[in-house]
Amino acid sequence: MTAGSQVQDDRTGSIYVAPSLSAALDALADYGPAGAPFAGGTWIMRSPIRHEPLRPHYVAIGKIPELSAIRIGKDAIEIGAAVTHAALAAALAGLPEFAVLAAAAGSSANPAVRALATIGGNLSALDFYAADCMPALLCLDAAVEIASRDASERMSLADFLKRRSTFQPGRLLTRIIVPRTERKTAHARLPLRKSGDYPVAIVSLSVNVDTASHVQAVRIAIGSVEQTPRRWGRLEAALLGAVLDPARVADIAAELAAEFTGRDSVEVPAWYRVSVLPSLVRRAAATALAN
């Protein structure tokens, strides 16, 4: 394991501050199941509240330059896994095609959490069902890069979400790659309280329309309703070729909403998460048209 600072903590055992990506991957490989990456820590530090044991060892990755960088290229943007929600929202503020992701990152949780929580943590927390950035990235056709000491692999975000619970110890999400293209986007969420909170439901929309507002291509992703965010394929198919009219979109969404099985929680019953989808879809369509 490459030299780096090591901090002993009575609660977690040890925290190794990795000086480089290769050092972090070496440490994660050496620790195996006893270790885990630590970035913003907003999810890990609440593990005791969820009655989850902390790992004996953590590898701090927040000071690794390539993991904290955002690269805006001609054909794609690349987002390091340790980029915070606040930094991501600020970096994308002037790019209308990424309005959905800027809104997702800029409206999640509250300002204190956004200053610490990272995009990689948002995607990697297995039991966090209300992540704002997941549906936003799904509707943008994002891919992710997963690295280990010996190799790296790129896959679609949809594949990552299916496979993330099966990854062996030592693997780390290092960056998110989002293609650039002309599109209108929007992010609509219903929080539990106006003051900022986890959302009841999320609708993220990316759409291409012609001069008469006919839908040429569309991607709609739903989050927080079920345990894993997913595309709404039947609604997408129903909108292709038609005028993007928010009221009509909401009517179609109401007809198709029964395909979702909402998740129960102490805050919100399952049926309510599904019932608000048509209004959120309407709001997202109206916002996209206005952009």
UniProtKB/TrEMBL annotation:
It comes from the Bacteria. Signal peptide: none annotated. Gene3D superfamilies: 3.30.465.10, CO dehydrogenase flavoprotein, C-terminal domain. Coiled coil: none annotated. SUPFAM superfamilies: CO dehydrogenase flavoprotein C-terminal domain-like, FAD-binding/transporter-associated domain-like. Residues 8-183 form the FAD-binding PCMH-type domain. One of its GO terms (molecular function) is FAD binding. InterPro entries: CO_DH_flav_C, CO_DH_flav_C_dom_sf, Diverse_Substr_Oxidored, FAD-bd_PCMH, FAD-bd_PCMH-like_sf, FAD-bd_PCMH_sub2, Mopterin_DH_FAD-bd. The keyword Nucleotide-binding does not apply. Keywords: FAD, Flavoprotein, Oxidoreductase. PANTHER family: XANTHINE DEHYDROGENASE SUBUNIT C-RELATED. This is FAD binding domain-containing protein. It comes from Bradyrhizobium septentrionale.
